[in-house]
Design a protein that fits this description.
single chain, 216 residues, alpha/beta, five-stranded parallel beta sheet, 8 helices, globular, binds thymidine-5'-diphosphate
């Protein structure tokens, strides 16, 4: 791995999964646990996580009408480039733990596979945007997209542009995440998102403890 791919003194933990899988709930619980344990945590997300990123997020999620798939992929990549350089890398250099809702795997699953732009090409664009920064751990909260959509609709009442895609799109996203997890079993922790919240939090903590213990 190149020097730019290493996470410095800190640890970079990402959460992935379909909409409604409970990523933000688990991110919040993980942040609380890490903070209680004396770690400094930066909890963040993509798209968003910076002022520029929040504007990109608004564009990509709430633009009415058609957005060219390549434009969509590049907007997520632009958000990522700015976020990694201005938020994630500085935090890792300080020795903080970054807990992040979505990262490159989301681009590969949504734009690369579900939008058919090509997993390898989209990963290459994202890797370039992030200058090669890879997570130490990725927690995949796996959920049937029909259940996920029901959860989002019940919690929020409205669906954004991506959430409104057909079930087949979200099934492709789910399958893509699972395939990535199979290909990189050391990086991924795959959890059944229908399990009780506290049980999931316990499983995440156990794995994060290992990651924190490894060659600090
Ligand atoms: P998310 O923040 O999880 O949505 P919410 O806060 O509404 O739960 O993600 C926003 C959407 O963006 C989600 O549908 C997945 C999509 N997305 C991509 O398509 N590609 C990407 O690279 C990222 C980061 C997200």
């Amino acid at each position: 791995m190149s020097a730019s791919g290493r996470t410095g003194r800190g640890r970079f933990i990402t959460l992935e999964g379909g909409d409604g899988a409970g990523k933000s709930t688990q991110a919040a619980l993980l942040e609380d646990w890490l903070t209680e344990g004396g770690r400094t945590v930066v909890r963040t997300r993509e798209p968003g996580g910076t002022a520029l990123g929040e504007r990109i997020r608004e564009m990509v999620l709430h633009e009415r009408g058609h957005v060219a798939p390549r434009a969509e992929a590049l907007l997520y990549a632009a958000d990522r480039a700015h976020h990694v350089e201005t938020v994630v890398r500085p935090a890792l250099a300080r020795g903080d733990v970054v807990v992040q809702d979505r990262y490159i795997d989301s681009s590969v699953a949504y734009q690369g596979v579900a939008r058919s732009l090509g997993a390898d090409r989209v990963r290459a664009v994202s890797d370039w945007a992030a200058d090669g920064l890879t997570p130490d751990l990725t927690v995949l909260l796996d959920l049937d997209p029909v259940v996920g959509r029901r959860r989002v609709a019940a919690a929020r009442g409205t669906l954004d542009r991506l959430e409104s895609e057909a079930t087949a799109f979200h099934t492709a996203v789910r399958d893509a995440f699972l395939a990535m997890a199979r290909a990189e079993p050391d990086r991924f922790l795959v959890l059944d998102a229908t399990r009780p919240v506290e049980e999931l939090a316990g499983a995440v903590r156990a794995r994060v403890a290992q990651v924190l213990g490894a060659a600090a």
